[in-house]
Amino acid sequence: MIVSTKGRYALRVMIDLAEHQAERYVPLKEVAERQEISEKYLENILKVLVQNGFLEGLRGKGGGYRLTRTPDQYTVAEILLLTEGSLAPVSCLVPGAPACERMPNCRTYTMWKGLLWKDHPCRPRRTRSGGE
């Protein structure tokens, strides 16, 4: 899987905000300058992150964006899943994909499934209910 520009920039923005928030809202312009991303493109990424509860925004004087959780409570996987839609290396592992007719005899399914998260640093953390 190749991560899109949107996914890469979302990760950069989240790291930037984690490094610079210091109990204040960080203006879009500051993030855009530090990350060398156009403000227009960054607005679209921030909108998605706000709508999904990763960030909160404040308009007006003293406004900007900040994380809704502490930085250690975010994972690379959840940010990329939000921006990319899926991290699956093959279509049969995309959540909600129709079952493949070859699945019962597929010699590579287990390999692909294991490759998706096995020992991967971006692996989603387990929830309290035990799911991923």
Explain the layout of strands and helices.
Elements (H helix, E strand, L loop, with lengths): L4 H16 L7 H8 L3 H13 L3 E4 L5 E4 L8 H9 L24 H9 L15
Antiparallel strand pairs: 1-2
Helix pairs in contact: 1-3, 1-4
Shape: elongated
What summary fits the major beta sheet? 2 strands, antiparallel
Return the string of H and E elements.
HHHEEHH
List segments where confidence is low: pLDDT < 50 over at least 5 consecutive residues: 126-132
What structural category characterises the helix and strand content?
Answer: mainly alpha
Give the % helix.
40-55%
Strand content: 5-15%
CA gyration radius, whole angstroms: 18 Å
Give the number of helices: 5
Report on this structure.
This protein has 132 residues and is mainly α. The protein is built from five helices and two strands; from the N terminus they run αααββαα. Strand 1 and strand 2 form a beta hairpin. The longest helix has 16 residues, at 5-20. The protein starts with a helix and ends in a 15-residue tail after the last helix.
Brief summary:
A two-stranded antiparallel ribbon has the order 1-2.
Question: Tags for this entry?
Answer:
single chain, 132 residues, mainly alpha, two-stranded antiparallel ribbon, 42% helix, elongated, disordered C terminus
